[in-house]
Design a protein that fits this description.
The protein is α+β, with helices and mostly antiparallel strands. It is built from seven helices and four strands, in the order αβαβαααββαα.
Amino acid sequence: MKKLIFMLSLLIGVSSLSFSIDKTKEKLLAKQFKTKLKSLAKDGWEISGTSRTLEVALYEHYEKLKMPDYTELSGEVSNCISINVCRQTALNNAILYYAQQASSFLKARVAGDQQINSTAVGSEFDKVYTAYERLVAAEIKGEIEESFSIVRKNGDVKEYKTFFLVNEKKAGEKRLRALENAFKETSVAQEYAKKISEFVKEGFETEAK
């Protein structure tokens, strides 16, 4: 009986902690929403490509960020003339940034593992990083959801910025597939490939929590 009471108390405690964390995140996002809206309006940004107001678009964006696994990604461009060109360039820049960050994460994980003898692998690691970044950029495009875009005129040209939402659970699967394909394109020994895949996967799982 005491064991049952203890387990129930533990479950209630965990649930309360989870609720507390969720409420804290919600308050922080609400505060961030107000600050961001004020900042964008002050700096002369206007909503683009939608009949929604900037306030509504930003509110809906932060509401989606409350959902599990979702993170924000943005892409921006300056000195463009056509809105269509601005929009496409912003997307391309966001994808490139995401791929570069993924590659940097991979390098950091490899460099931090003392059991991998990078000297023995030689320049093949550089080939893996290059292939991985390119393949992540190709894989991740379908997992990037456009949330809203803003524009600011600067004479005859425009500054343009798009905010995206990324489901990191699905994106993590795509990054792992990109890593596997990067290994296939290079001649890194299987023993290294297997180990890197294992600890990178662990890192993805930690990142998604």
